[in-house]
């Protein structure tokens, strides 16, 4: 078959292909998209696996990322780069197409996750040591802003104010980052519309020991869980002048809480059918809250202390994993009936779950079996496995286009 295009059109097509190819560094095997890629953290080895969820396969490994205990990641807007937050304060930019570390900075001594701004130009890291938030240019990882989490009354001359551990760092519309101060019991909003001069607004007295937080899928509400007391703190980001309100105050009143072996995690979204599904601290329950009124509308008894309570993308199911001694289980909740419909036993050490972008499958990291298991969310059957060295967090690039993830 002959090419019927004019010589000019053939030349333009060839030039465009050459330019496109030139965007990919030497070593990139083929032109491909990144929408079905992701990473699996191999915490003990200090590396991540680059995976493809369409074919359920490992594509490559990226080494040299430091201490990846409790590591998490966010993605660039083009879903090509993963920003990996290590527990040792390391921030690494990983190219998923070439499976290389573009740059790594040691920005603090102890960190607990981060976020990427609405415009994709800034990456922020929540730090325990020194307590505060540091913000970096997403392209170069050059420092942009440093926000120390100092709290309390002014210090005496020659002394310094205490600094709090920062938790629950989330992105919010308007190039804002919202986070909580664990030691101070405060929520701060950092507006980085002017990137080098962040404007910080502080809310004090929001409750004792906020331990984690989430931003609702529409970006409107920031919800911080409280470890030091029963309840959660809610900040309406559309109406920040209204201040912080409480919900589920005293939800465990009259009950003896159980020892907490692992802090629950709020980020990951448990929003479905106009309700918020939340892990109860020290209790074998998932709390159900009406997202319009923030009032409790139900409790679902579950097999253990919930850690992640995550909604399938279509909101039809909630998947839950548990702290010790029940960390070999995963339960599936039916949203309309608010009931457990299945209990799965992937194996000891279930640490994380991640849905494929449309939710037809869920990947489950099973640390003690050195395995990632893949389940069909319709049949609830296991449909695949991937070997992995002590896997923990699983993060797919579909997060790149969602608020608060």
From TrEMBL:
<protein>
    <submittedName>
        <fullName>Cytochrome D1 domain-containing protein</fullName>
    </submittedName>
</protein>
<dbReference type="InterPro" id="IPR051200">
    <property type="entry name" value="Host-pathogen_enzymatic-act"/>
</dbReference>
<dbReference type="InterPro" id="IPR003143">
    <property type="entry name" value="Cyt_cd1_C_sf"/>
</dbReference>
<dbReference type="Pfam" id="PF02239">
    <property type="entry name" value="Cytochrom_D1"/>
</dbReference>
<dbReference type="InterPro" id="IPR011048">
    <property type="entry name" value="Haem_d1_sf"/>
</dbReference>
């Amino acid at each position: 078959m002959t090419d019927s295009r004019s010589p000019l059109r053939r030349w333009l097509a060839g030039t465009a292909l050459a330019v496109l190819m030139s965007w990919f560094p030497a070593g990139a095997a083929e032109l491909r998209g990144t929408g079905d890629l992701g990473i699996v953290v191999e915490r003990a080895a200090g590396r991540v696996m680059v995976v493809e969820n369409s074919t359920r396969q490992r594509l490559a490994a990226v080494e040299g990322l430091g201490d990846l205990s409790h590591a998490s990641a966010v993605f660039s807007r083009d879903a090509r780069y993963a920003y990996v937050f290590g527990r040792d304060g390391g921030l690494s930019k990983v190219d998923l197409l070439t499976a290389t570390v573009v740059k790594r900075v040691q920005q603090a001594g102890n960190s607990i996750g981060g976020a990427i701004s609405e415009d994709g130009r800034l990456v922020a890291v929540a730090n325990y040591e020194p307590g505060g938030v540091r913000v970096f240019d997403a392209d170069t990882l050059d420092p942009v802003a440093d926000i120390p989490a100092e709290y309390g009354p002014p210090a005496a001359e020659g002394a310094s104010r205490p600094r709090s551990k920062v938790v629950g760092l989330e992105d919010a519309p308007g190039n804002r980052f919202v986070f909580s101060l664990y030691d101070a019991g405060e929520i701060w909003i950092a507006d980085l519309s002017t990137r080098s001069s962040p404007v910080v607004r502080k809310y004090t007295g929001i409750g004792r020991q906020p331990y984690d937080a989430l931003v609702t899928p529409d970006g409107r509400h920031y919800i911080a869980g409280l470890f030091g007391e029963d309840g959660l703190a809610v900040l309406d980001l559309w109406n920040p002048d209204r201040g912080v309100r409480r919900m589920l105050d005293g939800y465990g009143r009259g009950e003896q809480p159980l020892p907490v072996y692992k802090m629950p995690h709020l980020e990951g979204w448990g929003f479905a059918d106009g309700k918020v599904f939340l892990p109860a601290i020290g209790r074998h329950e998932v709390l159900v809250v009406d997202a319009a009124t923030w009032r409790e509308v139900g409790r679902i008894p579950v097999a253990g202390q919930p850690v992640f309570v995550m909604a399938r993308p279509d909101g039809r199911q909630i998947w839950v994993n548990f702290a010790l001694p029940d960390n070999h289980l995963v339960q599936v909740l039916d949203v309309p009936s608010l009931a457990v419909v299945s209990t799965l036993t992937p194996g000891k050490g279930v640490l994380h779950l991640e849905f494929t972008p449309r939710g037809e499958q869920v990947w489950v990291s099973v640390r003690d079996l050195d395995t990632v298991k893949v389940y069909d969310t319709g049949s609830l059957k296991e449909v695949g496995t991937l070997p992995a060295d002590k896997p923990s967090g699983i993060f797919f690039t579909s997060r790149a286009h969602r608020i608060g993830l």
